[in-house]
Write a structure and sequence with these properties.
mainly alpha; about 0% strand
Length: about 110
């Protein structure tokens, strides 16, 4: 999935917690949010914070879909509330390739 496709998919499915999301969809969208928030923070901290609050739901949704892609429940994102260790665990989980059981549902044949 390309950078623009990822942004479009995440913003159009901003509240869709069912289904699956590939690694590229999650990581491209996170890069987009990080870059935009950084540029906005250089201009105005308040605008940056408003943007991040607006992106919270799409980030949670794509994170849950990514966890579904590796066979985990979306509630695993609660580990992100644990400083350092929880965020590291989520990063490792999100970087995993999709599970074999999920591949059978996606690929034809």
């Amino acid at each position: 999935m390309s950078f623009q496709e990822s942004i479009w998919a995440c913003l159009t499915q901003y509240a869709e917690f069912n289904g699956r999301a590939g690694r590229s969809e999650l990581w491209w969208f996170m890069l987009f949010v990080t870059l935009v928030a950084t540029v906005l923070a250089l201009m105005s901290e308040i605008v940056s914070q408003v943007f991040l609050v607006a992106m919270l739901l799409p980030l949670l949704a794509v994170g849950a879909r990514r966890l579904h892609d590796i066979g985990k429940n979306g509630w695993w994102q609660l580990y992100g509330l644990i400083p350092i260790a929880g965020i590291s665990l989520l990063g490792i989980l999100w970087a995993q390739p999709q599970t074999d059981s999920m591949r059978e549902h996606i690929q034809p044949g």
